[in-house]
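Weekly structure sync, notes
Attendees: PL, DS, HV (note-taker this week)

Item 1: AAA family ATPase
DS walked through the input record. Source organism listed as Methylomonas fluvii. Sequence as pasted into the shared doc:
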Amino acid sequence: MDSLYISEQAPSKPHIIVFAGAKSGVGKTSVVANVAAAMVLRGKRVCVVDVDTGLSNINTLLGLRPAYRLEQVLRGEKTITEILLKTGDDVGVVSAAQLMGGAPVSAEQIHRLTAALADLETQFDYFLIDTAAMHTETLLRFIELAQSTFLVVSGDPAALTDAFALLKSLNTRQYLGSLRVVVNQAVDYPAATDTYRRFAAVAEKCLKLKVEYGGFVIRDENLPKAVALQMSVVDLAVNSPGSRCLLALADNIIKHIGGETAGTGLVEYWQTLLSATPSRQVVGDDADAEPVSALNPADKVEMSISELSRRLLLAMKQQLLDQPALERFIGEFVESYCEQFGRFPNAFKPLFYRWLETENYAEPRLIELVATLEALHAMRYQRPMFSLEENAARLVAQLQGQREQHKNLVEQLCAAYRQTFHEEVFDAEQVLLERMQAEDFTEQRFEELLQKFRDGFQTRFKRPYQSQHELALASAVEALNVMGVDQQNLHDEMTMLMHGFQLLGSRREKLLTTLNALQNAGLPLAASAARDN
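Item 1 (cont.): predicted structure, written out as tokens:
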């Protein structure tokens, strides 16, 4: 029932997702193998298509021994079922590393390949393309024809530099698909996000391109163990840190790619891919295939590189080759050289300088080239191409005689310093004291400066400036005034009190006089009244 439910919910066409690395050693193939296993664990049907023309170690990581490849299906020697391998996790694997050596040249081969890929489409929801870790024309075609690409990088400056070069080539081709960056072999989450931010910042600054964050895979001791056991890490230790990162990446793919975009299908993708490849002969049993060689029959003999070079140079001097065809040949030759030897020819550097000298580039184009070189230098060596002193000297040289711009530049630098370190560049007090020690600093200048300080104080605090002595004296005067008021109040109270005493004495005398008069009169109640009073 579960498989039936998944089949009913699957999109009409599977999703094609390309994984690119641009440099060996970033762990791209390991990410592909383990993400595929994680997606299967989430109930999705996933197939890895191995087009890595290098070691093709996806099979080693998954413990598989492929006996047949997709090119044998193309020749009619095997069926798609015979070349399709399955892991213990039910991840499908198809080896197609040599298929891009040439495109089908006959209708029968095209029909055969289309039928095989159409059959394969019905079995899976996602196809993960594991590409070669080399910046070649073939890799660029694999990426630009896919709707979704994951660029696997690491914190290694060389890996970031190569990834940026790949990104620049894709930007030149106006890649319209979704490109996300996965940071592999990260120490922790902050280190992964820091690597992504540095890479994205350079891409946005130099290419005006926003790169999405795809996720990260943390360093995990279970990963090398899984490789040694030829199994996925999610199967070996599903709760390990690396497994949790891979499961999160799988969930993001299912949610954002599987849930929000329509799949293109493997047939359409591969047909477009092969149609974009220069036509070359495919080894097979088809008699109607067009030959690769454009030489005369008499010339179809083995020649040395020196002889081929001599003939090519002779043809160029005699103008037997048109410029577009020659440019295509040079590009294909350099690409083949890189695929064969893993590096650019030694003559590339002087040719690069010659290219800059001969091309009449406009100023914006030259600025773009310089900015690209500075960005590559910063990513590779983790430091700017020019030191702070060198940059300052260059700025000062550019501002000779432009006083206002020079002043604005200094103000901007001071503002940036203040914002970063929350303090001023210069100690104003120390600068002022040092200035006062100069011989040309006069008393008159001091008085003027003091008056400016007083005016500034009044503007800031809304009152005239007073020194500590002046404040103490004003406070003493105010206290004396208060004491004088208190003294007067006390004197008034004493006067009122004395007046009360006088009134009381007067009443007492009157009362005694009355009592004495009553006593002398012989009244019977006189003594009692006297006592009561």
